[in-house]
Amino acid sequence: MKNSVDKLGFYGEFGGAFIPELLQQNVRELQEKYLDIIESHNFQEKFRKLLRDYVGRPSPLYFAKRLSNKYKTRIYLKREDLNHTGSHKINNTIGQILLARELGKKRIIAETGAGQHGVATATVAALAGLECVVYMGEKDIERQAPNVMRMKMLGAEVRPAKSGSKTLKDATNEAIRDWINHPQDTHYIIGSVVGPHPYPDMVARFQSVISEEMKKQLKEQTGRDFPDKIIACIGGGSNAAGAYYHFLDNEKVELISVEAGGMGIDSGHSAATSILGSPGVIHASKTLLMQDKDGQIIEPYSISAGLDYPGIGPLHAHLIKTGRSTVLHATDEEALQAGFELTRLEGIIPALESAHALAALSKLKFKSGEVVVVNLSGRGDKDMATYLKHLNI
Question: So which residues are the catalytic ones?
Answer without folding.
Answer: 89, 111, 377
